[in-house]
Amino acid sequence: MSSGMRRGFLLSTTHTGRGGPALGSRVTPKKIAEIKIPCHPENQPEEAPAKGETTDDMTHLVLTVVPPSSPLLPDPDMYSALISFKTQKEKLLAIPGFPTSFTTPSPPVYRVQRAGGRFQGLGMFATQEVHIGDLIVRERALLITTQYVPPGPDGRPNIHAFDVAVHQQMSAPRRAMYLALSNIFPELPQTLGILNTNSLYIGALPGYNGACGGVFNDISRINHSCRPNAVFWWDLQSFSGQIRALAPIRPGEQIFITYIDMWPTRTVRQATLLKKYRFRCACGACTLTGAYAQYSDLRRAFIAMQLGDDLDGSTTDADLLAWAGNPALPDTMLVNAAELWLNWLLGEREMEERLSRVVFSRLCKAYAALEDEEAVKKYARQAAAYETAWTGSDGGWLAVAAAPQETAWWGLRRKARESNPSS
Ligand SMILES: [Zn+2]
């Protein structure tokens, strides 16, 4: 998103280190709706390799499995079929220790069952109470593939690769799982239709910047909501996808992720979902009426504007420091603004990672400057939970919650008043 405006007040970096797996591809949880067809000019710019990027390697796909076959591996269900370019495969397998093992909650904290109501197929439901940040499931994909598929010998996209991957590479149980997934594109070959219906965007794999998608046995069953209570992310090092809670979830409650960007208006979101996934969203945000619907659109527009700025980049704490050091400014100035943003994010259930992190960081710094211990603890604990949802680690926030006085921001307002007694 580009924006000519600079909006200053949220520009700040968190002082806590960025957690998460160094090699993890942290991406927005949207599904890939279609394999882009290289012979369609309108699909070229994003999906096809740029001129000069194409190597000999990229004229054809390589089919393999991850981890590489070995008679020593005990669990054949932990394999992903991988469709990639040769360089990608080589770079992946060259990562030391790749892929690392992982665990998922056992016994499971969810069940896949008929969703009922407005949903046609299955959905994922919590079987016990889940808290923000909790891991719900971690899973190796049935199939991982590049989104760009080079043409075959006949000049058409080589979708034959999907048939080979599913019918020749997968074990019988894995193949049965794949073929049991829903297919909303009956006009396409079955393996491709299932891929387009179920694959989640996992970002790029080493060796090529183009997008890749993953199809999962359980994770792909999760339905969409524009007010999701869970988030999907992909970890390259363990070659697994994971779902973590973004809201408290009660037993029996359905688990939702978002398939698309959340900030567009309801009209735009609905059109996107209808086109890409062929359903009309009837989530809590999409069924609002009148002024409530307008308010939701407006809040999402504000969130989008903030995201238009480079929150991760050239951001500083300059305005926070200026406020902290100037007793003439109101005590509540920055916390009021940040709390308003947090309420908007929570109200839309749009806990966007970068923006939420900035808001929590500002709240904790400002309240530390004001020596409000309870407020710092409250927001640092919330930040820890969300950080865990986004990255798998609390990012240092629990240490802040344990000892707010230890932060560099503690008491800055008092110190400023003491050195400016006249203000
Ligand atoms: Zn919706």
Automatic annotation (TrEMBL):
<feature type="domain" description="SET">
    <location>
        <begin position="107"/>
        <end position="260"/>
    </location>
</feature>
<feature type="region of interest" description="Disordered">
    <location>
        <begin position="1"/>
        <end position="27"/>
    </location>
</feature>
<protein>
    <submittedName>
        <fullName>SET domain-containing protein</fullName>
    </submittedName>
</protein>
<dbReference type="InterPro" id="IPR053185">
    <property type="entry name" value="SET_domain_protein"/>
</dbReference>
<dbReference type="InterPro" id="IPR046341">
    <property type="entry name" value="SET_dom_sf"/>
</dbReference>
<dbReference type="Pfam" id="PF00856">
    <property type="entry name" value="SET"/>
</dbReference>
<dbReference type="InterPro" id="IPR001214">
    <property type="entry name" value="SET_dom"/>
</dbReference>
